[in-house]
Structures are given as C-alpha cells and as structure tokens.
Amino acid sequence: MNREFDGEQPKMRILLVEDDAMEREKLLACLEQAPDVKVIDWTGSMSEALHLTEVQRPDAIILDIRLDEGDGVSFLYHLKELDMIRRPYILATTWTSDKATIRSILDNGVGFVQVKSQPGYQEKGPEMVLSTLRRMRPYFGFVDKPQGTQVNTSGMTVLDPDSAMRRRIAEKLGRINVKIGTVGHTYLVESILIASKNKSGVVDMENEIYPELMNKYRVTKWSIERIMRDRIEKTWKKTAVEILEQEYTQQVDPEKGKPELKEFISYYASLFR
C-alpha cells in the first residue's frame, strides 16, 4: 500500500462516512490539521462508502450510523462480503444510546462507539474522535482477518470454495459497469453464484435465490428484488450500447430496454456452470 509519511511513521489513512454537512465539516477541519492523518475521502452514502473502502483500503473509518443513502448498520453487514485481507478499524458515531443498537454494531465489526449525545461532544467532538483513533492506532492490526476463509469444527482455517467464484462473477459484471460496492452488486453476485450451482440450468428465484439472500442479509424479498432490478436498470442506462451488446449477448426486449432480473441472472449463471 502506498502511504504518505509523517516523519518515520505513516499517516493514518481515514475514510469519513458522515451525511450531516455541519458534522462533516467540523470533523474534516480537525482531521486535516492533524499531522498524523490523511483523509483519503468522505461520503454520506453507504454504497459509495463500500466502494471507497474496497478501492482505497483505509486504515480506519469514521462511520456515522445514520446516512443519506443506506445506514451504518447495513454497511457493516455488507463490509463482511468485501474481499479484503486487512479490515479497517471502525469508529462509529451515533446519537442513540440504545444498548441493543450499540451492542449490535460492536458485534459486527465496530471497534469503538462515540455517542454524540454524551457531555462535551458538541464542543469537542472531532477532537474526541481523533484522540480515540490515536489511542487505538497500535491495535489496528488486530482487526486483520483473512477473507475467503471459514473455520471448521476442528478449529483449523480452510479456504472458502466460493470466494474465487465470487471474484470471477464480479469481474464479469464489471465489464458492463455494474457498480461495485453497491448493495445491488452484492445481491447480483450472490444470486448468480447460487444459480450457477444448479447444474440443471433452472433459476429458481422463489425457492432458492430469494430465501438464501433473505436469510443471509436479513432483508425482505421485496427489498432484494427491487434493489437488483434497480441496479440492472442503472447499468443499462449508463453503459455504452456497444459494450452491452458485446458483453451481454442474450437478446433484450427492445420495448423494455433492459433484461428482466431472472433472465439476467440466468445468463450469467450459465457462464459459470
């Protein structure tokens, strides 16, 4: 990883995920003055935060739980699906002091929760966040976790047989510019993976794909379907016709202007059986 150095120690590379403009500006003003910090980017969007995390590989993320698009809790779940050898340290900020919510985000990868309603935060919030990151920096390495692995009952680590296939599917979707890091991208990759395992060639959305995704991501069938359809529609709107015709050779209904969800999954699943 290419880093900028401050003296002998590399700067902390931080991604700021905060949708509130006033909060964001205060944090940026503090962080950008710190000699040991480099703010690599900021966003108020969950999907963009996932994309930036995968591409930029920050050392730490300051994550607001409430966002313009998506939310911090969902971000944590989708972060687990990214193929990363080294996970960033995550400091979450939130107005809630609800114990169940805080326990949930701590259990799903957050290293520290900064409650905005606590005394002193309104006056010195950014300084408190920076101070915590500096204290925790020596322990950033302890959040490293090999991806594409599972632990079997004997306690030995074994390779996840699906990790390589997920990368191949993602690479194929990348050729038509399905935006990586989005929830729709994640659902489409998983759906194609599931369908590719059915050697009969049948794509069973109702009995195989939707139930597995609903169980894995704890979301409704309606939400899964809507998000995947929306991602396909956006891809067909922004990608050049020449690229689509070259990469997606199955005929598309000219009146609809884009493939149906099931036929899209079926087409790509057939490439990986």
Automatic annotation (TrEMBL):
<dbReference type="InterPro" id="IPR014879">
    <property type="entry name" value="Spo0A_C"/>
</dbReference>
<keyword id="KW-0804">Transcription</keyword>
<comment type="function">
    <text>May play the central regulatory role in sporulation. It may be an element of the effector pathway responsible for the activation of sporulation genes in response to nutritional stress. Spo0A may act in concert with spo0H (a sigma factor) to control the expression of some genes that are critical to the sporulation process.</text>
</comment>
<dbReference type="InterPro" id="IPR039420">
    <property type="entry name" value="WalR-like"/>
</dbReference>
<keyword id="KW-0597">Phosphoprotein</keyword>
<dbReference type="Pfam" id="PF00072">
    <property type="entry name" value="Response_reg"/>
</dbReference>
<dbReference type="GO" id="GO:0005737">
    <property type="term" value="C:cytoplasm"/>
</dbReference>
<feature type="domain" description="Response regulatory">
    <location>
        <begin position="13"/>
        <end position="133"/>
    </location>
</feature>
<dbReference type="GO" id="GO:0000160">
    <property type="term" value="P:phosphorelay signal transduction system"/>
</dbReference>
<dbReference type="GO" id="GO:0005509">
    <property type="term" value="F:calcium ion binding"/>
</dbReference>
<dbReference type="InterPro" id="IPR011006">
    <property type="entry name" value="CheY-like_superfamily"/>
</dbReference>
<dbReference type="Pfam" id="PF08769">
    <property type="entry name" value="Spo0A_C"/>
</dbReference>
<feature type="modified residue" description="4-aspartylphosphate">
    <location>
        <position position="64"/>
    </location>
</feature>
<protein>
    <recommendedName>
        <fullName>Stage 0 sporulation protein A homolog</fullName>
    </recommendedName>
</protein>
<keyword id="KW-0805">Transcription regulation</keyword>
<dbReference type="GO" id="GO:0003677">
    <property type="term" value="F:DNA binding"/>
</dbReference>
<dbReference type="InterPro" id="IPR001789">
    <property type="entry name" value="Sig_transdc_resp-reg_receiver"/>
</dbReference>
<dbReference type="GO" id="GO:0042173">
    <property type="term" value="P:regulation of sporulation resulting in formation of a cellular spore"/>
</dbReference>
<dbReference type="InterPro" id="IPR036388">
    <property type="entry name" value="WH-like_DNA-bd_sf"/>
</dbReference>
<keyword id="KW-0238">DNA-binding</keyword>
<dbReference type="GO" id="GO:0003700">
    <property type="term" value="F:DNA-binding transcription factor activity"/>
</dbReference>
<dbReference type="InterPro" id="IPR016032">
    <property type="entry name" value="Sig_transdc_resp-reg_C-effctor"/>
</dbReference>
